[in-house]
Design brief:
heterodimer, A: mainly alpha, B: Rossmann fold, four-stranded parallel beta sheet, binds magnesium ion
Chain lengths: 210, 131
């Protein structure tokens, strides 16, 4: 088992995410229909299909993959997820160099979260994707603290993101259009937090499959 | 040279309507709609916004951008992040009410307002002044 994650990992991650987002398209649409405009699954599916097509030509390094994801999502997603995930992947690319070790995984997640917070001006507890990325970062940092390798760090982050997404259910949305629903936003899982958990799970799956 | 406006909306119809309304009082102001996704759905497009801004900048205009909703604002802020620092000096995002802001900004541009004056007008602050 290698202690760094290479371009092959990044390519497998994003291709896996494309497949998983396509599979979950209807579920993400349903989650978004409950508290938004019902297009999150469609938007993510379209965006990652466009990414997968562009990645057929391959990429030079991990950062090249992340930058291609960023620019493609920004111009193809259409909804709020485009600039949010676009900025996240761009900052993730800028926060890392070359192959990714345990600290690199933390830097990648920290860069993503920082980008989302800067773009969306959101904080935790507002029922957004920040509520998945924030626990993911905390879990990744904790795993590095115990000496875990990058694959285990990614899995810890993905599991924490999934738990974070579940924990958005009782929250009242106070950011974005869902906030117009007030108390009626309570009882629904946030679609952006859910897609974040799916994408991070794909990152861990791809690392474990290498 | 006249300051130009870019109207960014999720809906092509909405953006075209705002342009139609604003140009009534601002015949000489370049007004561009950058609306909908690249494949014509409801949403906003990084490329459409970037193309509108680039075209107006190449023609020599300073540019003020208005948006309809928060996710359109995030698309605009992404475009602004990608501009060179010296280009950023010539482009402003104004977080005002779309219809009133566009009309106020267009009129201000029509009478020769500077980039700052047009951006300020686009906020349509007097609408929210009390009393
Ligand atoms: Mg939506």
């Amino acid at each position: 088992m290698s202690d760094t994650l290479s371009t092959a990992w990044a390519l497998a991650w994003i291709r896996g995410a494309q497949a998983v987002l396509a599979e979950n398209r209807a579920e993400l649409n349903d989650l978004d229909r409950a508290i938004g405009d019902g297009d999150h699954g469609e938007n993510m599916d379209r965006g990652f299909k466009a990414v997968a097509a562009k990645l057929e030509a391959g990429a030079e390094d991990v950062q090249g993959v992340l930058k291609l994801v960023a620019s493609t999502l920004m111009s193809t997603v259409g909804g709020a997820a485009g600039p949010l995930y676009g900025t996240a992947f761009l900052r993730a690319a800028k926060a890392t160099t070359g192959d990714v070790d345990s600290d690199g995984v933390v830097a990648l997640i920290a860069g993503s979260l920082e980008g989302i917070v800067a773009r969306g001006k959101a904080t935790t507890g507002e029922k957004t994707m920040v509520d998945a990325w924030t626990p993911a970062l905390g879990a990744a940092q904790a795993a590095v603290g115990t000496g875990a390798g990058p694959i285990a760090v990614l899995r810890a982050a993905a599991d924490a993101a999934a738990a974070g997404a579940e924990a958005t259910i009782p929250l009242q949305a106070t950011k974005g259009r869902a906030s117009y629903l007030g108390e009626r936003s309570i009882g629904h899982k946030d679609p952006g937090a859910t897609s974040t958990a799916l994408i991070l799970a794909c990152a861990a799956d791809a690392a474990e499959a290498l | 040279m006249t300051v130009a406006l870019v109207i960014v909306s999720h809906s092509v119809k909405l953006a075209d309507g705002v342009v139609e309304l604003a140009e009534q009082m601002a015949r000489d102001v370049p007004l561009r709609a950058a609306a909908g996704t690249d494949d014509g759905r409801i949403g906003t497009s990084f490329d459409k916004v970037n193309d509108a801004v680039t075209e107006l900048r190449l023609a020599g205009h300073d540019v003020v951008i208005l948006t309809d909703l928060g996710s359109a604002t995030m698309t605009v802020e992404s475009v602004l992040d990608f501009l060179d620092a010296d280009e950023q000096e010539h482009v402003r995002f104004a977080d005002g009410p779309l219809v009133e802001g566009a009309v106020a900004a267009a009129v201000t541009a029509q009478v020769g307002g500077t980039l700052e004056a047009v951006a300020q007008a686009a906020l349509a602050r007097e609408l929210f002044a009390s009393g």
